[in-house]
């Protein structure tokens, strides 16, 4: 009856665990993002699945490959599996521990003992040991809470790797498309300068122009040739960078739509800042790490209190192997044992202070992550808006410079203008066309960065984010 009462009392005591219970820090996110514009109440476009945002089939194929083969993602998945196992190990602390030992003396000198039937080094014996710690102070429960927080943090870290991976593939792909168009412009400009040099050489032989004109045209041709070489180098290096993200050896990367043919959503509302706390994986990861270290405070406090354990021993022992199963060879004992810190009590107090300091660090890290997230969203919002305005202005500039170059070329060939007009017009057009392609790329990348900053639906594990079978088949064909 006393043992039953002890069990009942211990379970009532176990209902109260030492240490603070975790609660989300009281943050006050802004009502709206600074650069959100008039679309504050609209649903965030981060709720779109990524294949609805990025509709280039070649890009979708690259993303699918990266999600299957990327090495960083595989490492993140293995880390999740590791902490799943660690959580199961922590849960086993609730259960009794049992083990078995045996002994068979083969060599040595046997002697007579005053206590026959109990195991010693000169006996044959088989012994079972049982130990069951009663979680009086919640140490085991807090350890399980910490292990669960670690697991959830690793799962969010995996989602963060997925988000970083897919956005990285998209950005690198748009870089390649930019280099494609810029290389096309540079080669076309190089060919134009080569024709200009030929015309200038002929006019120099006829004495129509001075050698200074020819030198200027030759200089611009060399500039275009250098730009072609630079773009070719950047293209190959970007392909190699993208190949690493795809988990394969360096090589050429297939393209789909051109840079200017990419489809973008007509509007990119950010939604409410409060939604960011649940959607961005890095924020959820920081919060789960804070929850885990908060639980460890309770475990550290419980370590400073005595541990009550139910122990038991059951077995058989005999100096002769033939009498091992006789009645008088059996032995067994059970009862509670208590163990508490004594000389190491101060060290355990310092350990608790260390864990509490870790919790303050985790809290500061979480708050800092929230601030950085808000900053990234606002920066991406202003980048999307201004990049579109900049692209429209530069497109108008290119159109005007194309007209100016045509007029200057006609006037030069007719002898109504000198070489300087043509040189300036073509040089300005060349730089403006390259800048326009850079801004096209900037607009696309800004949309991707906004989607990433909002914690967009990159995760392939969520049922709502599974790529439709029909879409997968279309991508495979593409």
Would you spell out the secondary-structure blueprint of this structure?
Blueprint: H1 2-14, H2 50-53, H3 57-69, H4 71-91, E1 97-103, E2 124-134, H5 139-205, H6 211-245, H7 276-279, H8 281-302, E3 307-318, E4 330-339, H9 345-413, H10 419-453, H11 469-477
Antiparallel strand pairs: 1-2, 2-3, 3-4
Helix pairs in contact: 3-5, 3-11, 4-5, 5-6, 5-8, 5-10, 6-10, 8-9, 9-10
Identify the notable features of this structure and list them briefly.
single chain, 478 residues, alpha+beta, Outer membrane efflux proteins (OEP), four-stranded antiparallel β-sheet, disordered C terminus
The parts where pLDDT drops under 50 for at least 5 residues are: 468-478
With strands numbered from the N-terminus, the spatial order across the biggest sheet is 1-2-3-4
Beta percentage is: 5-15%
Query: Termini, distance in Å?
Result: 75 Å
Helix/strand/pairing category: alpha+beta
**Shape from CA axes?**
elongated
CATH superfamily: Outer membrane efflux proteins (OEP)
- Main beta-sheet annotation: 4 strands, antiparallel
Rg, rounded, reads: 36 Å
CATH class: Mainly Alpha
Average pLDDT over all residues:
84
The number of domains: 1
Q: Number of DSSP strands? A: 4
> What is the string of helix and strand elements?
HHHHEEHHHHEEHHH
CATH architecture assignment: Up-down Bundle
Q: Give the count of helical stretches.
A: 11
Helix content: 55-70%
Structure description:
This protein is an alpha+beta fold. It has one domain: Outer membrane efflux proteins (OEP). 61% of the residues lie in helices and 8% in strands. It is built from 11 helices and 4 strands, in the order ααααββααααββααα. A 4-stranded antiparallel sheet has the order 1-2-3-4. The chain is elongated, with a radius of gyration of 36 Å. The N and C termini lie far apart (75 Å). The relative contact order is 0.17. The C terminus is likely disordered.
């Amino acid at each position: 009856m006393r043992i039953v009462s002890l069990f009942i009392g211990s379970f009532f005591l176990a209902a109260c665990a030492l240490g603070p219970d975790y609660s989300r820090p009281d943050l006050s996110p802004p009502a709206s993002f600074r650069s959100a514009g008039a679309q504050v109440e609209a649903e965030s476009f981060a709720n779109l699945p990524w294949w609805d945002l990025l509709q280039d089939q070649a890009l979708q194929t690259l993303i699918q490959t990266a999600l299957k083969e990327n090495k960083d993602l595989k490492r993140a998945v293995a880390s999740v599996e590791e902490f799943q196992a660690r959580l199961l190990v922590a849960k086993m602390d609730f259960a009794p521990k049992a083990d078995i030992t045996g002994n068979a003396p083969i060599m040595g000198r046997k002697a007579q003992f005053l206590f026959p039937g109990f195991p010693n080094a000169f006996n044959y014996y088989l012994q079972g040991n049982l130990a069951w710690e009663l979680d009086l102070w919640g140490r085991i429960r807090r350890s399980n809470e910490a292990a669960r927080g670690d697991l959830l943090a690793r799962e969010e870290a995996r989602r963060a790797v997925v988000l970083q991976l897919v956005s990285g593939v998209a950005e690198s792909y748009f870089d390649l498309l930019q280099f494609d168009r810029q290389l096309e412009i540079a080669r076309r400009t190089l060919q134009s300068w080569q024709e200009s040099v030929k015309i200038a050489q002929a006019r120099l032989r006829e004495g129509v122009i001075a050698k200074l004109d020819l030198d200027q045209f030759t200089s611009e041709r060399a500039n275009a040739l250098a730009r072609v070489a630079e773009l070719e180098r950047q293209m190959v290096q970007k392909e190699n960078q993208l190949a690493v993200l795809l988990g394969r050896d360096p090589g050429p990367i297939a393209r789909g739509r051109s840079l200017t043919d990419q489809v973008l959503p007509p509007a990119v509302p950010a939604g409410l800042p409060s939604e960011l706390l649940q959607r961005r994986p890095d924020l959820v990861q920081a919060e789960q790490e804070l929850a885990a270290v908060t639980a460890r405070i309770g475990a550290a406090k419980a370590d400073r209190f005595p541990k009550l354990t139910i122990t038991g021993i059951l077995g058989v022992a005999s100096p002769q192997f033939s009498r091992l199963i006789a009645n008088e060879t059996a032995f067994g004992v059970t009862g509670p044992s208590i163990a508490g810190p004594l000389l190491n009590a101060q060290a355990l107090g310092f350990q608790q202070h260390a864990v509490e300091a870790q919790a303050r660090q985790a809290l500061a890290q979480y708050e800092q992550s929230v601030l950085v997230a808000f900053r990234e969203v606002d920066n991406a919002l202003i980048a999307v808006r201004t990049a579109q305005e900049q692209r429209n202005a530069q497109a108008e500039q290119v159109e005007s410079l194309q007209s100016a170059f045509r007029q200057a070329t006609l006037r030069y060939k007719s002898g109504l203008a000198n070489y300087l007009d043509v040189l300036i017009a073509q040089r300005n057009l060349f730089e403006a066309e390259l800048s326009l392609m850079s801004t096209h790329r900037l607009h696309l990348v800004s949309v991707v960065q906004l989607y990433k900053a909002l914690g967009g639906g990159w995760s392939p594990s969520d049922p709502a984010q599974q790529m439709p079978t029909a879409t997968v088949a279309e991508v495979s064909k593409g």
